[in-house]
TrEMBL record:
Pfam families for the chain: Bac_export_2 (PF01312)
Name of this protein: Flagellar biosynthetic protein FlhB
Main function: Required for formation of the rod structure in the basal body of the flagellar apparatus. Together with FliI and FliH, may constitute the export apparatus of flagellin.
Family: Belongs to the type III secretion exporter family.
Keyword Protein transport: yes
Source species, domain of life: Bacteria
Keywords: Bacterial flagellum protein export, Protein transport, Transport
Keyword Ribonucleoprotein among record annotations: no
């Protein structure tokens, strides 16, 4: 019988200026609680076991390492797009995002 991996979660806070910081992390029931609380407050959730494993190695209050800047920046940018937020100087040059609601 295959062992089911324990659920893990890590939460980041981004202030728009500094590198994102680990504000919560946990395994098992604590991970479930973190995810539930995030959903209750409308926080977008990205599921990636490998990224969570890397983030879980950091201490609470610690900034993400430079090696993770690109992936985290892409996730933050994508979360803004999902919420219909775009930079002031952004022009939908490739016409890949449908603005119709």
């Amino acid at each position: 019988m295959a062992k089911i991996p324990e659920q893990s979660a890590a939460a980041l806070k981004y202030d728009g200026k500094n590198a994102p910081v680990i504000v919560a992390k946990g395994h098992g029931q604590l991970a479930s609680d973190i995810i539930s609380l995030a959903r209750e407050h409308g926080v977008l959730i990205h599921e990636d076991a490998e990224l969570t494993k890397l983030l879980s190695q950091l201490q609470l209050g610690e900034q993400i390492p430079k090696e993770l800047y690109l992936i985290i920046a892409e996730l933050i940018a994508f979360s803004y797009v999902l919420q219909g937020q775009f930079p002031d100087n952004w022009h939908n040059i490739h016409q890949r995002i449908d603005f119709k609601t």
